[in-house]
Amino acid sequence: MNIPPDLARTHGPVALVTGASSGIGAAFAEELAALGFDLAVAARRGDRLAALGARLAAAHGTQVTPITVDLARIEAPRELLAATSALDIGLVVSNAGFGLKGPHAANDAAAMTDMLMVNCHVPLQLAHGFIPRLRARRAAGRGAGFIMTASVEGLIGCPYSAAYSASKAHVIALGEALWGELSPEGIDVLTLCPGATESEAAAKQGVDPALLTHQLPARDVVRATLAHLGEGPGFIGSDHYRALFEAMLARPRREALRAMAAAMKPGV
Fold first, then answer.
1. Among 85, 74, 25, which residue's Cα sits nearest to residue 52?
2. Residue 233 · residue 191 · CB < 8 Å
3. Tens digits of per-residue pLDDT, 178-203?
4. Catalytic amino acids?
5. Containing domain of residue 103, as a range?
6. Domain for residue 232, yes or no?
7. What is the CATH number of the domain that holds 125?
8. What residues are paired with 189 via a beta bridge?
9. With a threshold of 0.70, does the pTM exceed it?
10. Cβ–Cβ under 8 Å, residues 59 and 49
11. How far, in Å, CA of 1 to CA of 231, rounded?
12. Going along 19-160, which residue ranges are E strands?
């Protein structure tokens, strides 16, 4: 399946990408710019957003609006909605997120709160704020869509990744519900569940990236996601992880969870 060649015409001129300073978010920004979108990009690291904007402007003539914001703050979604109020955004990519690995009791309480704000609060409130704007586009006969980055770990409670897994289950449920509400109106909603993807995420979670197998380049995941935009509600961006989790979910739940716990237990 190929990315629709007229995606920028139907869903543009501007796309919003959160978590755009690295990994999948940066790959979304790069691919959308190559397709002809202008961009609003949001992340904490303003220096990286400035470098991204300069690179995309030089390569594609893209107009980039950088929004430096700490998405763990409760006010962040409201600030992001205000900062984009004058932009004609037809595609919202709610991608920002991070994870925590290890025994749940060992997690830092403040880090878990920040993770819930970024992974759950932001997509919830961005969807709430953008739905009226995207409905107005559809009323005018124009394209509109949401992409939400979840994780295969949101498909089942993953031992030793409990908080992150729960937060991504929230994103999957939110995306599925919104697809049910909005797809009859012609608004695309797609929840991306990537498996292992080349990014900074593993190292930040204390996982040695060299130990990860079946990693995909972020740009491959992004291209496949954009090609499936109209095929919601969900998309698993890796054939390997799709087969792995389909097999896991076909097992009795207790059996699957115990097998995962044994495999993921630290030090084993």
1. 25
2. yes
3. 999 999 999 999 999 999 998 655 55
4. 164
5. 7-264
6. yes
7. 3.40.50.720
8. 146
9. yes
10. no
11. 11
12. 38-43, 64-68, 89-94, 145-149
